[in-house]
Amino acid sequence: MAKPSLKAAFDAKKFVVAPGIYDGISAKVADGMGFDCLYVTGFGTVASHLGEPDAGIATYTDMVSRVSRFAQMSRTPVIADADTGYGGLLNVRYTVKGYEAGGVSGIQLEDQEVPKKCGHTPGRRVIPAEEMVLKIKVAVEARTDPNFLIVARTDARTSLGLEEAIRRGRMYGDAGADIVFIESPESEAEMVEIGRSITTKPLLANNVEGGRTPILSKQRLAEIGYGIAIYPAVGFLAAAAAYERAFSHLKQMGDSNGLPAQESYGFTRICELMGFPEVWEFDKRWAVLDK
């Protein structure tokens, strides 16, 4: 079931900051940090699982087990990327049911054509707004838990302009989406216009370091009308940089001696994060019988 605290946060007009998670370690670390929400990034999950670009390659089957595992292992509510719903209206219905059954607290659906592409890369095309409205209505009907939130994303800004993106955002909110996500506005002025134009539902800001949209402070985002900021790439960008530095040291030196302390999480600490002390305690208690 969805965790009710996320919907309660939005109902209380609390601004939500959500880091991107994409594997078990990132989920474990983020879950212990006290955030109100975690965001399962499609880009990062596809990259870590398949080693492929976020370009419509991952299927519902690829994703549902992973996002469900992230949700079930986390005390923090999880919003998970579900691309286009992986097909037509029936696919959307099954996707919503599968994500909800997996313990996800919110699902993100977008209006791109299949195959979809990452929202901060070129070449995205969108389906007619009316088709997306039907997808949202199906999603609303498919959920059984009122705490399960539906995030409706439009990628129309890049190909059809800001005015059309705002029109779609309004339509998607009217169709029943709980959160409206206008992807990749290209200036603060555009974000201000979005906040001025869509006031009935919380707005989501997608903050990608090096992406198409300026990264504003949470205070500024709240001031101009946004309710949630996701940072899908911050974790895997940092992890990739750390991998590169550590592996470079290993390649150059031939061993890990002298690796700066900040480049290593520490074996003892990672064992604690992953729950090994509980395993060791179990082994001690049952050691006599397990022979």
From TrEMBL:
Keyword Lyase: yes
Domain of life: Bacteria
Classification via InterPro entries: ICL/PEPM, Pyrv/PenolPyrv_kinase-like_dom, Pyrv_kinase-like_dom_sf
One GO molecular-function entry: lyase activity
Keyword Zinc recorded: no
Organism lineage: Bacteria, Pseudomonadati, Pseudomonadota, Alphaproteobacteria, Acetobacterales
Name of the featured protein: Isocitrate lyase/PEP mutase family protein
Gene3D superfamilies per record: Phosphoenolpyruvate-binding domains (3.20.20.60)
Listed transmembrane segments: 224-243
Keywords on record: Lyase, Membrane, Transmembrane, Transmembrane helix
PANTHER family hit by this protein: PHOSPHOENOLPYRUVATE CARBOXYLASE (PTHR42905), PHOSPHOENOLPYRUVATE CARBOXYLASE FAMILY PROTEIN (PTHR42905:SF2)
